[in-house]
Automatic annotation (TrEMBL):
GO molecular function, one term: glycosyltransferase activity
Organism of origin: Mycoavidus cysteinexigens
Pfam family, one: Glycos_transf_1
Record Gene3D superfamilies: Glycogen Phosphorylase B (3.40.50.2000)
PANTHER family, per database record: BLL5217 PROTEIN (PTHR12526:SF595), GLYCOSYLTRANSFERASE (PTHR12526)
Name listed for the protein in its UniProt record: Group 1 glycosyl transferase
Alphabetical UniProt keywords: Transferase
Length: 354
């Protein structure tokens, strides 16, 4: 099957540091290539892939200080994909609703994975306008605000199986917070939970420009507490050690998280997750097996006192069974085939052979 993966240009694929969507696109692309598919990746020029790379912009927009209008490079990419659309069996977009108008007017089947939050009122008329646009959710809970969308499938994110491995040589000694510092991620709640448990907490997190004022005013004063250590943004290569050294990952979110990649990163390292019951959390974390799903700080403290009942080996096995990139790629291949069948399309490679 000839597949085009169209990634956002904000980060490289994979990102150098933080970047959720672009990382998932990378894991999916590489897994599809390993499964024998012909994949072309439309992304920034500093991306690294085993697929055919079409460099739409020289480098990731976040790393280019000259960029002031991030939409302009994306418009160029959409037109480049449109000009080459007939070369592919499937166009797979990771750009929210951007492709809906243009690509609903051409013949090559396309689908879009929706990676972000969908509970924004301005999205309602967009999905009302394009009822035929096929979309994939990354959790069942993500779908709730848009029941009218043309849902093709729910496919959970996955990581390369050997990318993050447990480090049994490291004795857990703290609680961990990983990801991004923003109001909805509630690092302040994580700090409070750790204090109530009498445990140190290490925070490995990025601060976006949009959240700098929030950090300066509300979070920075909390970082001076003796039980808190702020590490900053960490790379992929540092995560296995960071997560393996944690008693648990704290995920006290205050928003309808569409998936939560950090939860399966922790599971890959055998580290249990204590997460608030929001969004996708009950779909990702099996309560009492890979962690505990709680409603508030008090329940989180109680759950932390029950960590001894969980097996880190079992946490890792659950990751292997549910959240590898190969499993994700197989799910997307099934979705591609379903979409081709719906539109009565024949795979281009089969046409060439025939």
């Amino acid at each position: 099957m000839r597949i085009a993966q169209i990634a956002p240009l904000h980060e490289a694929v994979p990102p150098k540091l933080y970047g959720g969507t672009e990382r998932v696109v990378s894991y999916l692309t590489e897994a599809l290539v390993e499964l024998g598919q012909e994949v072309t990746l439309f992304a920034s020029g500093d991306s690294i892939t085993a697929a055919q790379l079409e460099a739409v912009w020289p480098q990731a927009l976040r790393l280019d200080p000259k960029i002031r209008d991030a939409l302009a490079p994306h418009m160029l990419m959409l037109e480049q994909v449109r000009e080459r659309a007939q070369e592919f069996d499937i166009l797979h977009f990771h750009l929210d609703y951007y492709p809906f108008s243009l690509f609903s007017r051409q013949n090559t089947p396309f689908l879009t994975t929706l990676h972000g939050r969908l509970d924004l009122p301005e999205l309602q008329p967009v999905f009302n306008m394009f009822p035929q646009a096929q979309v994939v959710s990354i959790s069942d809970s993500q779908r709730a605000p848009l029941p009218q969308a043309n849902w093709l499938s729910t496919i959970y994110h996955g990581l390369p199986e050997k990318m993050l491995m447990p480090r049994p040589d490291i004795k857990p000694g703290y609680l961990a917070f990983l990801g991004r510092i923003s109001p909805e991620k509630r690092v302040d709640t994580a700090i409070s939970i750790a204090a109530k448990c009498g445990l140190p907490i290490k925070i490995a997190a990025k601060i976006d420009k949009a959240d700098q004022a929030y950090y300066d005013e509300q979070i920075a004063p909390l970082m001076s507490q003796p039980h808190v250590e702020y590490i900053g943004e960490i790379s992929e290569g540092e995560k296995a050690e960071f997560l393996s050294g944690a008693h648990a990952l704290l995920f006290p979110i205050d928003w309808p998280e569409p998936f939560g990649l950090v939860m399966i990163e922790a599971m890959a390292c055998g580290t249990p997750v204590i997460a608030f019951k929001r969004g996708s959390v009950p779909e990702v974390i099996e309560h009492g097996v890979t962690g505990f799903v709680v409603n508030n700080e008090t329940e989180a403290v109680t759950a932390l006192n029950r960590l001894h009942t969980l097996s880190r080996d079992t946490v890792r096995k659950q990751f292997e069974e549910r959240f590898t990139s190969q499993r994700m790629a197989e799910g997307y291949l099934a979705a591609y085939e379903r979409l081709l069948h719906q539109q009565r399309r024949t795979v281009l490679r089969e046409v060439a052979v025939g």
